[in-house]
Amino acid sequence: MSMAEELIKSFEELPEDKKKEVFNFIEILKTKTSKEVNKMMNIIIEENKSALEELGK
């Protein structure tokens, strides 16, 4: 059984209130990942600002 299948099986066995908690946790993880990517992109842009400005001419 794959990890996804095991996760789905375990999820389906949970009561509805616990399913909602799992869903909320997944949303938190996705938001955290998105914020980390945005932070990295801001650092890359700042570190390469002069080169990017030159390319924009």
Short overview:
By secondary structure, this protein is mainly alpha-helical.
Description:
By secondary structure, the chain is mainly α. The protein has one domain (15-55). It has three helices and no strands. The protein has helices at 3-13, 16-47, 49-55. The longest helix is centred in the middle third of the chain and has 32 residues, at 16-47. The protein is elongated. The model has no long low-confidence stretch (mean pLDDT 92).
List the helices and strands and how they pair.
Layout: H1 3-13, H2 16-47, H3 49-55
Provide mean pLDDT, rounded: 92
Structural class: mainly alpha
Radius of gyration (Å):
20 Å
Total domains, how many?
1
Query: Which regions contain 5 or more consecutive residues with pLDDT less than 50?
Result: none
Largest sheet features: none
The helix content, as a percent range, equals: over 70%
Secondary-structure element sequence? HHH
Question: What's the total count of β strands?
Answer: 0
Number of helices: 3
Global outline: elongated
Key descriptive features of the protein:
57 residues, mainly alpha, 88% helix
